[in-house]
Amino acid sequence: MDAKTVMHFAVDQQVKFVDIRFTDLPGSWHHLTFPVSQITESTFEEGLGFDASSLRGWASINESDMLMVPDPTRFWVDPFFEEPTLCLFANIVDPLTKEGYGLDPRSVARRAEAYLNFTGIAEGCFFGPEAEFFIFDKASYHNSPESSGYALDSGEGYWNSGRSDENLGYRIRHKEGYVPLPPADSLHDLRSDITQNLQDVGIEPECHHHEVASGGQCEIDFRFGTLLGTADNVMLFKYIVRNTAYYYGKAATFMPKPIFGDNGSGMHCHQSLWKGGEPLFAGDKYAGLSEMALHYIGGILRHAPTLAAFAAPTTNSYKRLVPGYEAPTRLAYSRRNRSAACRIPMYSQSPKAKRVEVRFPDASCNPYLTFAAMLMAGLDGIQNRIDPGEPLDKDIYDMSPEELGGVKELPGSLDRALDALEADHEFLLKGDVFTTTLIERWIAYKREKEVEPIRMRPHPLEFAMYFDC
Asked: How many domains does the chain have?
């Protein structure tokens, strides 16, 4: 695709506006909208200037001028705007150096792909994420000096089984929400609409279903792709899910643990390396893996505490990553075993299906940074021939501390994950994929804006435990 193709498409679709989208450091999407007359083929070379000083984690006011350079390889018509609007991803470019801005997440992903090719290890890295989410009928929250709280509701939630109004008795029991039929699964048609909207914007869905938790937990899987293309798809996927739910009068969230006591939402990430059209992870080692794949896993496991700072990047992420519960925290690998941090799926014996599934990320992450960081960890494992140790094929949740022995764990909090990132990030700096400035900015932002506010604020449960002390 090139700029000429985009401009012809805009004419064919009678587009009136062009919406250019980019991602801030924490991982939220932003956009600027231009009348179509303001966009020409030269825009794709010269870019469009904007003020980056008000974006989270980005430029200070004395270096706020940035360029948005649209990427002509990916475009679609927004399904929600009233006026026909063409949408494009943008790379953020420093106007002085004309290079990708060091704090632009999409530029990090592009540099990661370029570094992979530079190493000669592989020509492509494919990612396939499984982003879970909740859809609620109501969601409210407040925080003030003298009061705080939240309230969520879902008509299918088991806590509504005692309602006297509009109660037909079909409720999803606690932790029994995995793939039930309607009427218990009340969100089938909404997910189908999401699926159709995904197809309309160029994402290829593979399957949709209800997930384990009561109260509206869902999953829609879409086809794997390149690192950059899949990170783009995650951003667009979250946008489509939220806005389709909003159209139905509901609220969708990718928050990892919105409901106490039931399953949280993760984003398991399948990944593999390819070269010359051939898969590099298939071989004659454990679970049909190649030696390269085992070393890739070794890199993931060794650097997992650092990866958690990007892959599980919120304080709420660690409400899901609790040892012994539904999300894997032990740094082990295994075939089929979902209690290990790295799993090797065994659905197919085809070499092309051989991949590694990393199970601790969640969809609150910035996918550009998370995918790039995992690739860099895996490459470090390959380059340094890191041994992942012996596989752990037992159910880790049922093993005693003595049996687990020296199997390490993920950090138990965002603060500790940031400590790990601070101590172990040299592998991320290879090829200038990540920069020291980005890592320092990420750590400072997360500590100041997320860790410290949570640390200082009284929790509602504390009143129940301590008010009469």
From this structure: 2
